[in-house]
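Support reply, case 0932

Customer input (verbatim):
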Amino acid sequence: MLDAQVRTARGIVGVICIEHAGPARQWTLDEQNFAASMADLIALNYEAYARKQAETALRETVVKLSQSNAELERFAYVASHDLQEPLRAISGCVQLLERDYREKLDARASELIGHTVEGVDRMHRLINDLLSYSRLVKTQAALKPVDLHALLAGAQRNLEAAIAESAAVIDCDDLPTVHGDPTQLTQLFQNLLGNAIKFRGTQPPVIHVFAERQPGFWKIGVRDNGIGIDQQFFKRIFDLFQRLHTRDVYPGTGLGLSICQKIVRAHGGEIWVESTVGQGATFFFTLPDQLQGNP
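Our regenerated output:
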C-alpha cells in the first residue's frame, strides 16, 4: 500500500491510501510523486475550505455583535431617557416642599431635603452622561473637515463659568484641520478641559493644547498643572464609572473619559495619559490625517 499524509498549517488532517489490485510490488518514484501531489492538492483545497468557513463564521459573529451593540445602545438610550421623567417629578416635589414648608421644617428636615436635591442632581448628570455615551456611534455621514482650533474655542465657550470660577488660563499652539464629527470632537475637548479644571491643585489651572504631526496622523495633547495621576491608574480611568476620588472631593459620574475614549476610537484613533502625581497630566489622542490621503 502507498500512502501520503495530507499536511496543512493545522497539522496532519488525513492520509491518502493507494492499493495495488495485483501482486505486491515496489511503487515507482512517479507513483510516489503522484500520491504526494494529490495529498498537496487536497491539503490546499482543505485549507481554502477551512478559511472560507472561518470567514463565514467571522462575518456572522460580526453581524451578531453589531446587532447586540445596537440593541444595548438602544436600551441604554431608552432606559436613560425614561428615567428622566420620574426624576423631574421627584425634583419638583422636593422643591415645592422646601418652598411651601420651609418655615415649618426643622434643621434635620432641611438637611434631608438638601441631600435629596443633591442626589437628584447627581442622577440627572449620570443619566445625561449615559445618554451621551449611548449616542456615540460611528456615523460616516457626520464626518467632514473640521478646524480643531474652532472646536476648542467652542468647548471653551461651553465652559465659561468653570473657567471664570477657577481663573483657568488656556492657550494653544496651531491646531490642524482634520476629518471628523464636529459635535463629538467638541465634546472631547470639553471633557478634557473640564477635567483639567476640576482636578486642579492649589494654583489656578494652566492648560496648554498642542498638536504634533506624525506619519499618517496627528497627535493632540492637552497638558495641565493639576494634581496628576498615579501610573497604576493610567488605563483604569478610561473604564466606565471608574473614579479615583470620592464625590465629596471631586464631583462627577465617572463617564467623562470613557466618552472621550469612545469618541477617539470612533475616529480611528487612540487616547492615553502621561502623568506624575502632583505634577499635572497630559492627555494625548490621535486622529488620522485623512485629509492628506493617508490611512
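We compared this against your earlier run and they match. Two observations from our side: The first helix runs from residue 29 to 101. Residues 2-62 form one domain. Please reopen the case if you see a mismatch on your end.
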